Amino acid sequence: MNQYKCVIFDWDGTVMDSAAKIIACMQHAAHVCQMPIPTDKEVAHIIGISLAPAIGQLFSLSDPLKIQQIVAAYKHAFLATDKTPCPLFSGSLELFTRLQPHLLLAVATGKARRGLERAWVATNTKHFFIDSCTADEAQSKPHPDMLEQIILRQGLTPSQCLMVGDTTYDMQMAQSIGMDRIGVDYGVHHPEQLMQHTPKAIISHPLALLEYL
Fold first, then answer.
1. Cβ neighbourhood burial of 130 (10 Å; 0-12, 13-18, 19+)
2. Which bin fits 139, alpha (ψ -120 to 50), beta or left (φ > 0)?
3. At what angle do helices 64-76 and 51-58 cross, to 10 degrees?
4. Are the C-beta atoms of residues 200 and 180 closer than 8 Å to each other?
5. DSSP three-state, residue 45
6. Ranges of residues in the chain whose predicted pLDDT is under 50
7. Dihedral sign of CA atoms 130, 135, 136, 138 in order
């Protein structure tokens, strides 16, 4: 654990089990906006990217007005109509509790700031994190902007930090600035995909991170 000063977590698919809700809301938004309904696998592939770029990629769209129409429909479904639960993955709370006395903890997420704040309130976890960067405050993953902002504010270097995430976008952004990274195999991207970006390990449960550290 002495090797690192900060652990930076992705949120959706790494800390929070939200993939089912994201998929359901995106499929609903497609229906409302009269777009082809994407498969579960197709939506899962874009989880982790900021919302507007993700929708552009998912539906092969470049028209900003159409993209914003789907963004609005997705947000309405997520906040007002869809009731799919978004629990923390088992072990996440214990992990944060055990890490916090020894390391700085931060979040780099494809959620918007309001979405992350709502998730923190719902799970009572905001107090664990010293810093965070969201999709509306940085360039979308896999660009390393989120990580660069966090380490600059904290006065750290990439070698002093560890990125933990469930997607290739998380692995790519850390790899591009020489930051160590650990993938989780219970999120939306398969371990084989994560391994292409040479993580230090692939873990199958949040508390397994303690064994690595």
1. middle
2. beta
3. 110
4. yes
5. helix
6. none
7. positive
| Residue 179 exposure: Cα atoms within 13 Å on the Cβ side | 32
Sequence-distant (≥ 6) Cβ neighbours of residue 4 within 8 angstroms: 103, 160, 161, 162, 180, 213
Sequence-distant (≥ 6) Cβ neighbours of residue 24 within 8 angstroms:
77, 82, 84
Give the amino acid at 14.
T
Q: How many residues does the chain have?
A: 213
> Which CATH number describes the domain made up of 6-17+87-212?
3.40.50.1000
Q: 19-81 adopts what CATH topology?
A: DNA polymerase; domain 1 (1.10.150)
C-alpha distances out from residue 56 to 66, 71, 125, 168, Å: 9, 10, 31, 18
Identify the CA nearest to 123 among candidates 155, 89, 100: 89
Question: Which pair of tokens denotes residue 185?
Answer: 């195999």
| Every domain of the chain and the residues it spans | 6-17+87-212, 19-81
- Single out the residue of 20, 14, 18, 5 nearest to residue 208, CA to CA: 14
